[in-house]
Write a structure and sequence with these properties.
single chain; 4 helices; 44% helix; SMI1/KNR4 family protein; Knr4/Smi1-like_sf
């Protein structure tokens, strides 16, 4: 993904992307797209600027019902959704840096958990799955 697309995401969302996520998009978006083509059933993190913008704006609108925890707190404004499994669950990063690398939100349980310690860990797993599929 080019710098102009990353800047467009940041402009549309009104804040800078976390550095590691920004670097991941710049350096690895094309690779993730290629892997997705070889693993069509695998949910991957979004690599399209329009999808990232659209889904984050929608998450902000749904914040009252995308609740977290037993107390059903609204979706935190610092959470940036970066992908979905297509079943209502989301991968996210905390823009505020208070949480680990890539988190996962389970919509039925209203729980968040660490899924990947970093984008590099995510990418290593994805690469391995692609190799295993060959």
């Amino acid at each position: 993904m080019g710098e102009a697309e990353v800047a467009r995401i940041e402009s549309a969302l009104g804040h800078p992307l976390p550095g590691e996520y920004r670097d991941f998009l710049r350096r690895h978006a094309d690779e993730v797209r290629r892997i997705k083509a070889t693993l069509p059933q695998r949910a991957v993190l979004w690599t399209d600027a329009d999808a990232i913008i659209r889904e984050n704006l929608a998450a902000r609108q749904r914040a009252a019902w995308m609740t977290v925890g037993e107390d059903e707190e609204p979706w935190p404004a610092s959470y940036l959704v970066v992908g979905t499994n297509g079943a209502g669950d989301y991968w996210f990063v905390d823009r505020g840096g208070a949480m680990w690398g890539v988190g996962f939100y389970q919509h039925e349980a209203h729980e968040v958990e660490e899924r990947y310690g970093s984008f590099e860990v995510y990418l290593a797993e994805l690469r391995q799955e692609a190799r295993d599929a060959q």
